Amino acid sequence: MGRSRPDERGPPSPGPAAPPAPPAPPPRCARALALLGALLAAAAAAAAARAFARYTEAQAAARQESALKALGTEGLFLFSSLDTDRDLYLSPEEFGPLAEKLTGSTPTASYEEEELPPDPSEETLTIEARFQPLLPESMTKSKDGFLGVSRLALSGLRNWTTAASPRAQFAARHFRPFLPPRGQAELGEPWWVIPSELNVFTGYLSNNRFYPPPPKGKEVIIHRLLSMFHPRPFVKTRFAPQGAVACVTAVSDFYYTVMFRIHAEFQLSEPPDFPFWFSPGQFTGHIVLSKDATHVRDFRLFVPNHRSLNVDMEWLYGASENSNMEVDIGYIPQMELEATGPSVPSVIMDEDGNMIDSRLPSGEPLQFVFEEIRWQQELSWEEAARRLEVAMYPFKKVTYLPFTEAFDQAKAKNKLVHSILLWGALDDQSC
User: Fold this and answer.
1) Count of CB atoms within 10 A of residue 85's CB?
2) Residue 211: helix, strand or coil by DSSP?
3) Which has the minimum average pLDDT: 78-82, 196-200, 201-205, 378-382?
4) CA–CA dist 370, 344 (Å, integer)
5) By C-alpha distance, which of 254, 235, 251 is closest to 294?
6) In Å, how far from its chain's centre is CA 331?
7) What is the pTM of this model?
8) DSSP strand E in 96-183: where?
9) φ/ψ of residue 142, rounded to 5
């Protein structure tokens, strides 16, 4: 047999390249070290975060202790009531209300001048305040000497016997916030004039405050109206539901009747006294105004007085707002604002554009004749009130019945009875 010999035609042509071999997996100990390094880094970051948090808390505690030594308990309490952002520094805006109180001065440009400038060509109306103070005997807990209650604690309440401004003039256009939003003028459909910023999950605002924040936008007219009762109204309450809700109850070619419900409260004390909060169950009422808000035919706002208790009161009797708080409920017979008549032009012009004297030669004022409003759609007061109530308290979608009626309904429908016993009303701010 002969030996084979290499092919004399040359080396064979190369085939397709083989794929690279996968890298060898790292040793198990290397993977363990990498994981341990990551865990140690995470632990170090967490420890650093905790250390920074403790450092921040220690700094805050040191500043708090320093402030307590410098101001004393009562002084720190007053300082905290002004320090709204809780940074332990008073900005000029935070210090402003106290500076005005101490100096007796007023700001050069108030929110009224900025947002409600006068216009001599528009219609104006006069609103009167009617006020009867809270009946002391209606307070079930807070008699003198009982539960540590003193005359000093209730001094702001006892001294509030008359309305702060018995009469005030407003321009018709200032009531524009009560008009329904564009496209939402459906009869009985509620909308929020001032939305609530609180709910059952967000908690409540601090009790340790004396001066309300400057109102903005639609809050301005409500703040001006409530200021006729007392100089320190808070347009938004400390507890939910806050704000104001409204709905259209009647419609004509040129006018709306709008019913509204407002949750607001008052601070009756000023430093050095402790805060005293006065929270009516609700303000309700109606306004009849033209669709362009140039004319107001009627206006009324009041605290309902058909229940035996209609005001909640809460006050501090020490520097801690968590442990030194007392609560009671009472009855106020009358807290009401009402227009003396429809809005009328401030300046009267004849057909040639000349100004006319607003008084007759006899001295009597000119009498205006207003056209009769022909309503095309109307909703009852009771139904409108129910819808506003549901907007504020969604649980009212369930029908609540008087005690005796509930058992008749339960028997007829073969259902159980859920009975609720309260020291006030569940569906307003007096409870």
Assistant:
1) 10
2) coil
3) 78-82
4) 10
5) 254
6) 23
7) 0.72
8) 123-132, 167-171
9) -95, 65
